[in-house]
Amino acid sequence: MSIKEFVQKFYKSDALIDSEILKTYLHPDVTLEWNSSKGFIQMDYDSIMEMANELSRAYVRSKVRISHIISEDDLVSVRYSHFVKTIENPREEMLLAHFSTIWQIKDDKLYRGYQMSQFS
């Protein structure tokens, strides 16, 4: 599987809201530098796992719609919109935010991430 296919598979899974699935994609030394609407956040393996656990308490389903994905060497750049369904209203899909992320892949895992997000 190419690194581009690997990243697509990651975003098509429920990994963003399921820490058990997420474990299979993260490198043990992963870091994510995230410029969000709340400012700059730097995350490591544990904080990414905790975020997935928090999201799983609020959302029953996660769906990512990728609009652009490009790979070169060990890097994959992806632009996507993240939709969720809440526990309170599982029939309604809600846009969480738009994201642009560059992932470096190492040992067939997500190793370094550089991400920007914007609420809709």
UniProtKB/TrEMBL annotation:
<protein>
    <recommendedName>
        <fullName>SnoaL-like domain-containing protein</fullName>
    </recommendedName>
</protein>
<dbReference type="InterPro" id="IPR032710">
    <property type="entry name" value="NTF2-like_dom_sf"/>
</dbReference>
